[in-house]
From TrEMBL:
This is PadR family transcriptional regulator. It comes from Staphylococcus rostri. It comes from the Bacteria. Residues 47-115 form the Transcription regulator PadR N-terminal domain. InterPro entries: Tscrpt_reg_PadR_N, WH-like_DNA-bd_sf, WH_DNA-bd_sf. It holds the Pfam family PadR.
Length: 186
C-alpha cells in the first residue's frame, strides 16, 4: 500500500496536463483525483485577457495572478511560459523587447479570439466562485498540509528501512484516507 500511494502521489505531482483548447473551458480539470485551479486552456484564456488589458511580461503575469488570488494561487513559470509561446505561435500575441524582458501585447487575432469566447470568462467565474473565501485561512491550511506532507516524506524515507515503521505509516495513511473520505461526504 505504501509503495502504491507514494507512486500515485509522485505520478500526480509530475504529471503535466496536455493543452486542449476544446476542453479548456470546463471548470475544474480532473486528472485522476487531482483538481486543478485552472486548466491550461483556461489559463491561456486568462493570460490572454490580462495581456488585452495591459501588455505584460511573463513574470508580471505570474505575480499579478498571485496578487489577484491573494497568494492562494500562482501559476508556475512552467505553466505560463509555454502558454505565452503557444499564444505567440497562434499569433494571438506579439512580442517587443524592453531590455532583457519580452513584453507581450495582444494582436487583432487575439482580440478576435477573446471576442468569440466572451461567454467563457473563466477568470470571472473563478473569482465569483471564491468571492467569499478567506484566502488567508486557505493559505494557512495549505501551509499545514505542506508541513504534513514534509513529515510524511521524512517518515516514508525512514520506513523504507524499518518494516515496523512502514506498518505504522501504512495504517496512518489508511486512517487519514478514511477520515478524509468521511469529511468529503459531509
Amino acid at each position: 500500500m505504501f509503495k502504491k500511494d507514494f507512486s500515485m502521489m509522485k505520478h500526480g505531482m509530475a504529471h503535466f496536463e496536455k493543452f486542449d483548447m476544446a476542453k479548456g473551458f470546463d471548470s475544474f480539470s480532473r486528472h485522476g483525483e487531482h483538481d486543478r485551479f485552472f486548466k491550461k486552456g483556461n489559463l491561456q484564456f486568462v493570460i490572454l485577457q490580462m495581456i488585452a488589458q495591459e501588455p505584460r511580461h511573463g513574470y508580471q503575469i505570474i505575480k499579478d495572478l498571485g496578487e489577484r488570488f491573494k497568494g492562494f494561487y500562482s501559476p508556475s513559470p512552467g505553466s505560463v511560459y509555454p502558454i505565452l509561446q503557444m499564444l505567440e505561435d497562434r499569433e494571438f500575441v506579439s512580442i517587443s523587447k524592453h531590455g532583457n524582458k519580452k513584453i507581450y501585447s495582444i494582436t487583432d487575432e487575439g482580440k478576435q479570439f477573446l471576442s468569440e469566447h466572451a461567454d467563457h470568462d473563466v477568470f470571472k467565474q473563478r473569482q465569483e466562485q471564491f468571492k467569499n473565501v478567506d484566502f488567508e485561512q486557505m493559505n494557512a491550511a495549505r501551509e499545514q498540509v505542506q508541513e504534513v506532507f514534509r513529515g510524511f516524506m521524512k517518515a516514508s524515507k525512514q520506513a523504507l528501512h524499518d518494516p515496523e515503521m512502514k506498518k505504522e505509516l501504512d495504517a496512518l495513511i489508511e486512517e487519514t484516507k478514511q477520515k478524509l473520505a468521511q469529511l468529503n461526504q459531509s
